[in-house]
Amino acid sequence: MTTISEKQLHNRGILLNVVSMAIMNLAPLLNKFALNHIGIILAALFNTLFVVLFSYLAMQYRGKRVSFKKTNKILWWIGLCDAVGVMSLYTSLDLITPVMVGFLGRLYTVFAIILSLIFLKERISKGQAVLVGIAIVGLFMFVNKELDFSSVLGIVAAITYTFFFAVSNLLAKIATATEETYEIIFSNKLISLGFVFAYGIVTGKLTLAGADMTGIGLVFLTSLLCNFIGLRLFYEGLRYVESNLLNLIRSAGPLLVVAYSWYFFPEPLSWINVIGAVLLLGSIVLLTQQSGRHKTSSTFVARRIKRTQKEKGCDLS
How far is it, in rounded angstroms, from Cα 55 to Cα 276? Predict the structure, then answer.
């Protein structure tokens, strides 16, 4: 029987999250292109629908029983947060550039730490409090420019999607201790699909007007690469990597968004905006290091998985 050490599991988690980050940060650019051909709610609906289908096919291919975990209450909350997050994401991309969305998305780390303090009962140090303050100052400096009403709405939408994805991923991290990653994605996205569809029907915003196959195709590509493969790798990596290291890895995300998007959607930045971006990213990197002084549940999750598989006599490879 082949066994894998805790260090090997940890290294596997790092690799999974690096690859996941590289793939998932293509999403702002691809989704921005898609919104030239399809409406916001319809894009969110197709995005979620495609991920549900991918999850179903993946479980069928692996010979796993496809089940909707309707009795697991945490998955309903993940689905609701995911629905709000995906609709807010498309709204922000419709109103502002992918570069700005990418940088504002790094507030995810700030929200993740605050949520961990609230739900995991961790304490915040004075250093962490100062860094959170610096991150907020950096945020205001980064968006310090002449903004019209739609740009302000876009910034609010970007912050909203970041917050709800942080909540969703925190809950997903808890769920990975008891549920398979494919089942988490399938159930959570199926629930999210229901919420998005209901919202579109109630508000009358779910319409095929203006949609074409180019937009649907781009949403399909984004769903496959970023929202299924990337998310699958992210959830799997959650099992083996502590939260502070995971957040540190993903803090480089905005730089990838800039690299992917700048040619198509250049973002004019003043020296104040640049300093704000540096403060925002720098404080987030330091925040992840500060949070590393507190133990997280990741090692516990990895050990629990390892112990469970040993008890069943399973190969961990």
Answer: 39
The candidate with the shortest Cα–Cα distance to 128, out of 111, 112, 108, 113, is 113
- DSSP 8-state symbol, 241: S
- Tell me how far apart the alpha carbons of residues 193 and 209 are, in angstroms, rounded to a whole number: 20
d(CA 259, CA 191): 34
Contact 28, 96 (CB under 8 A): no
Chain segment 24-81, per-residue pLDDT in tens: 889 899 999 999 999 999 999 999 999 889 888 887 887 777 666 666 788 899 999 9
CA distance linking residue 218 with residue 228, whole number of Å: 14
Greatest Cα pair distance, the chain, in angstroms, is 63
Tokens matching residue 124: 């915040």
Q: Which two tokens stand for residue 277?
A: 């971006």
Q: Is 172 left (phi over 0), alpha (psi -120 to 50) or beta?
A: alpha
Pair 85, 168: CB distance under 8 Å: yes
Rounded to 5°, angle at Cα 24 from 49 and 174: 75
Residues in the chain: 317
Half-sphere exposure of 158 toward its Cβ, with a 13 Å CA cutoff?
25
